[in-house]
Amino acid sequence: MTTPQGKGDFKTSRRELLQAFAAAGAGALLAGETLHAQANQNDNNRRIDVHHQYVFSKTGAYPTPPAGWTPEKSLEQMDKFGIQTAILSTAGYGDEVYDGTEKGNTLARKSNEYAAKLVDEHPKRFGFMAILPFGNVDASMKEIEYAFDKLKCDGVGFLSNIYDKWPGDPVYLPIFQELSRRKAVTFIHPFVPKCCRALVKGVQDYVVEFDFDTTRAVTSLLYNGTLSKCPDMKVIVNHSGAAVPVLSGRIKDRVPGDESRDHRETEREGKNANIPNGVFYELKKLYYECAHATYPTSFKALLEFAPHDHIMFGTDYSAEPMESTVRQWDAAKLPAQLQRAINRENAERLFPKFKS
Amino acid sequence: MKIHDVAAAGLTRRDLLTIAGGVATLAAAGKMMGQGANPRRIDVHHHYAPPPEAGSTKKGGGTVWTPALALEQMDKHGIETTIFSRPGGESEEGGEKARAFCRKSNEYIAKVVSDNKKRFGFFAVIPYSDTDGAMRELEYAYETLKADGVGLMSSIGDKWPGDPVFWPVWEELNRRKAILFQHPFTSACCRTLIPGGEGSVERDFDSTRAVTNLLYSGTLSKYPDIRYILNHSGSDVAVESGRMKDRVPGFSTYGGKPLSNRDGKVDRIPNGVFYELRKLYYECAHAAYPPAIAAMTAFAPSTQYLFGTDWPAEPMESTLDELPKNKLSPEVLHALNRGNAERLFPRFKS
Lengths: 356, 350
Known about the structure:
The complex is a heterodimer of chains A (356) and B (350).
Chain A: H1 14-24, H2 35-40, E1 47-53, H3 71-80, E2 83-89, H4 102-121, E3 126-131, H5 137-150, E4 155-159, H6 173-181, E5 185-189, H7 205-223, H8 226-229, E6 234-237, H9 244-253, H10 279-285, E7 287-289, H11 296-305, E8 311-312, H12 323-329, H13 336-350
Parallel strand pairs in A: 1-2, 2-3, 3-4, 4-5, 5-6, 6-7, 7-8
Helix pairs in contact in A: 4-5, 5-6
Chain B: H1 3-8, H2 13-20, H3 26-33, E1 41-47, H4 67-76, E2 79-85, H5 95-114, E3 120-124, H6 131-144, E4 149-153, H7 167-175, E5 179-183, H8 197-216, H9 219-222, E6 227-230, H10 237-246, H11 273-279, E7 281-283, H12 290-299, E8 305-306, H13 317-320, H14 330-344
Helix pairs in contact in B: 5-6, 6-7, 10-12
């Protein structure tokens, strides 16, 4: 099958190809390929997907990935799109795990045990990020010990908003400090907080509010000093960093305490007591996965901001079809080496268990 | 290929320009090429304050504003013309007080502008949530005060600008082919969520929400003759544009559903999402950092870029020190600095 020939669209089905020709006229060039062919190409093979949702129990007030998910469905999609390993996590509970009750603690435990079982059954195909009952710090510490030492989790996932607080809230600091002590990998799932649900008439939450809250979560961890105080914790940010890359300059320039706003004299690195090394230092230490954000705009902003060895592949399947991410991949025309780094090599460094 | 398709297809900026044909001529660009040539920028994001309030700006820094200080900054930074605006909550507080605030602001700045017509222009303030007041002020601002355009805030009371309650005003703005400048105004939902959040990220979120609302409500399609300027290189609009398209009302991939609407065309957006978003203008105040410019230039054609500084809320260096790092071509830079604004505001063409 031909490689992309030019600067056209990135269609992956025959019908879409025809639409592309019709839409763009004779100048449109074919860039799409069949999915099967794509999976056979070296550069897009053997991906590690770090944003992949399993479904343990579909509950909660907030919309979750579809019922009817099975591990087999994931494996089928993974085979189709050249993904060798998916690091499973879940955002499905909304706040239920975070409410600090025994019920929430137990739900976290059961969810982690379920994910661990999937990993046992498919050791090369799955890893998992544990969920912690953040609302109860003691229970979270216990769950960290259990999840890492007994269940052999690959890291910890948390929502961008945790029980109506943002992750940088001081009450959660001890949990992140323990994760830093363990040099743990963590992952931020997008979530729409109470402030911002059904906010704008005619605009569903899932259009833009997810990326706003992810950005808020990162800003919260940064401005509250959690990132500086937990330097050995690795944080993966979803959706190519959401709005972090495009807003990084303002996040730096509007750091709390900098009232002078003198751009020249202070060199404006966004340093204060909570951020002694400056804002860009902390934000560029983060990792970024590209699920549903390989659009040219988000991808280019990310590539412009983050070190290229901090970018990883993700799909957000089962909450999102894999096509949403893969569809845009070819149009980005990344050099082969960078494709390999994003597809697999950067994740191998964070998750050495899957190094081949 | 249309310029909009070209932008989507990931061509280089140089390719875009070759095809665009809406950018400065080579002769004008030639003016730019010499070392130290004055770029003669037109700044569309700059806030004034009438004298009694000049000592107490809402934003940080406490910088005093006077026309003389504005000119000093402009001369220092190669800005030939500034279009002033005055966003703030007072215009939407309702009643006579809000109407008076608007009238006083507009009359003040109109006088400042009339004393220096070549260097100054202004966006009028109108009380959108007071339809009668807004219509009256609009007429006065255009007919008597010769406003160059109208300011708009990203949120208006508890609503966003695309709410149908504002459509009578939009109708009039459309009739006048008005130029609108949208400035952030964080809605009450989101002013105290995280420490430092309002001044750093919430404004760009609200600006982006406003655009999503304008788009999905059909306001942009319904009033196609308005020229609409977004601040901060579009805030998060360029980055979210794909999601706005793929999750257009009635269609969404959320929950694992296949994409069924490729262009985001629905009844209220008959030409599709990217068509509407690429018609907007993007001014680069405090968003000339490379990631923001990368997103903007990956999405919008170079005919849509404008220059802005957000002075005095931000030192001009915040924008001007960062802009050269993007290594934009001389042609694109000229379009951004001046060329596109000359088309929007022909009275400054020279």
